[in-house]
Amino acid sequence: MTIKEFLNHERYQSVAVLAICISLLYFYGCDSQVRSILDPQQKITRQGLEFEVDQFMMQVELRYNELDRQDEIK
What we know:
Elements: H1 3-9, H2 11-29, E1 34-35, E2 43-44, H3 46-73
Antiparallel strand pairs: 1-2
C-alpha cells in the first residue's frame, strides 16, 4: 500500500490529524499580538506592549514633575 492509497483510504482521519496539528502549531507556536500604541500599523507581543506602556508612564511622570516645578515657582 502506497502513501497515496493509504491517505485516500483513511481520508477523514488524515484530514483530522492534519487539522489538529495545524491548530496546535497555531495556538501554541505563535505569540498573541496586538496593535502598537505608538505605531498602529505594527503588531507587537505582550513584552513589546509592556515596554511601550513603561515608556509612556515614564513620559507621564516627567510631565507631572515638570508641572509640579512650575507650580512651585508660582
